């Protein structure tokens, strides 16, 4: 009971951001990727992350989840500080509160889809094998894969199915926050659109906070509540309407180019972003 009381006391207030970065500096040798970067991610939002090549989009995700320790700055994920020297127990406990879908899927080729989904459960420990298998089947259904996908190996799946299997693994431990690195890369337009809608449906039904690195303008328009643009080693965050009006040259080129105009012509866009929010 005492441990439970301590856990409740340590929980962040509901109005606190899910993710908080202050003064983050990421550096590789002489190359500084981020310098003085501040970012708040609101609970329950879908935040898109964009930026030019070399701006450190994937590095940012890895930093937030503790795979990359910054040279300076403070990071909080769900009220807990991400820092070097965290104990193994504290790290494992926090890892159960977020899921990560890597750009290439990062599925274990020698394991079936069900076994891949069960891998985080095994690492966490304390879950009976029969229950793990039931939960894996539940996640498979949740992401729209057929039941027979459970016993297939990644090499037997299409690209779109591998993406869904990777997402199912990210959801294995019922996380509060999900990080997606280029989730629609390599998918055809229909497959990408279906995956966008899957992300949005899961976000709403599971009350997830989603941080998504993407180059897909259609995804930004369709499902992102706000967008974080990595520029000049820092980040600029806003709604689509706010960024469209931002005078920064890179933002202007990105959000006013031919591909952007095509994305903005998506039917019903005004219902999501407000009348006159886009050019």
From TrEMBL:
InterPro entries with a match to the protein in the record: AAA+_ATPase, ABC_transporter-like_ATP-bd, ABC_transporter-like_CS, P-loop_NTPase
Question: What are the ABC transporter domain coordinates in residue numbering?
Answer: 19-256
SUPFAM superfamilies on file: P-loop containing nucleoside triphosphate hydrolases (SSF52540)
One Pfam family matching this protein: ABC_tran
Q: Which GO terms describe its molecular function?
A: ATP binding; ATP hydrolysis activity
**Keyword Transmembrane helix, does the record have it?**
no
Record key words, sorted: ATP-binding, Nucleotide-binding, Transport
Q: Which domain of life is it from?
A: Bacteria
From the Swiss-Prot or TrEMBL record, give the protein name: ABC transporter ATP-binding protein
Organism, per UniProt? Nisaea acidiphila
